[in-house]
Write a structure and sequence with these properties.
Layout lengths: L1 H50 L15 E7 L4 E7 L3 H4 L4 E2 L10 E6 L17 E5 L5 E13 L12 E8 L11 E9 L10
Parallel strand pairs: 2-3, 4-7
Antiparallel strand pairs: 1-2, 1-5, 3-4, 5-6, 6-8, 7-8
């Protein structure tokens, strides 16, 4: 009888520990997604300041990055503010523009990077022919169409400067359902542009 009681108590404690662990994991995931959503609200306000003519508008006083573009995917209802730089600190709050590639919307090859479990999760749903819209800091809109996708090894991948035409590549980690972050594989979506649309209105 005593042994049975001890086993019941041990099972109860184990159940409580597992439940606590589950809640902790859920709380961590909710915090990551909540932080990403709140950051986009603040970034939209900073983007409005950029469109009004300010050169560098930081979304919060201690931010080490600032908005450089707005990305839209009409078919998926995606609208995101793109940040300067693709460091881990920037990508925690939104997709980032990779230094050394063409500025968003400018002639040349522009590369944007984002996390697979937050801002760039939608990449897996993009198919050839899908429309992307990119608004530059001057307010002008540029439309791109997805031409394909590819999985590459980040240790070997290199981005070319392009041939002067507007091209856009979106990059995220792969596979999308990986349990551990930081693997070498990257999922790339390629898109090509048409002539830009001037003005601040949507194309």
């Amino acid at each position: 009888m005593a042994r049975r009681r001890v086993l019941r108590q041990a099972a109860t404690v184990l159940g409580l520990l597992l439940a606590a662990l589950g809640l902790w994991q859920l709380g961590g995931a909710a915090w990551i997604h909540g932080k990403a959503a709140l950051a986009q609200v603040l970034l939209r306000q900073a983007w409005a300041g950029t469109l009004s003519g300010a050169a560098v508008v930081r979304p919060w006083p201690w931010a080490d990055t600032y908005p450089v573009a707005r990305l839209e995917v009409p078919a998926l209802g995606v609208e995101q503010i793109v940040l300067a730089g693709a460091s881990g600190r920037s990508l925690a709050f939104g997709p980032g523009h990779l230094d050394g590639t063409a500025p968003p919307g400018a002639p040349g090859h522009s590369v944007l990077s984002g996390h697979r479990d937050t801002h760039f999760r939608f990449l897996r749903d993009l198919t050839p022919g899908a429309e992307l819209r990119l608004q530059g800091a001057d307010g002008g809109w540029h439309r791109y169409w997805v031409t394909g996708s590819q999985v590459v090894d980040a240790r070997q991948a290199r981005f070319s400067a392009g041939d002067g035409r507007r091209a856009l590549t979106l990059v995220t980690c792969y596979p999308f359902d990986a349990l551990e972050p930081g693997g070498p594989l990257r999922y790339l979506v390629f898109a090509e542009a048409e002539p830009p649309h001037p003005g601040t209105g949507a194309p």
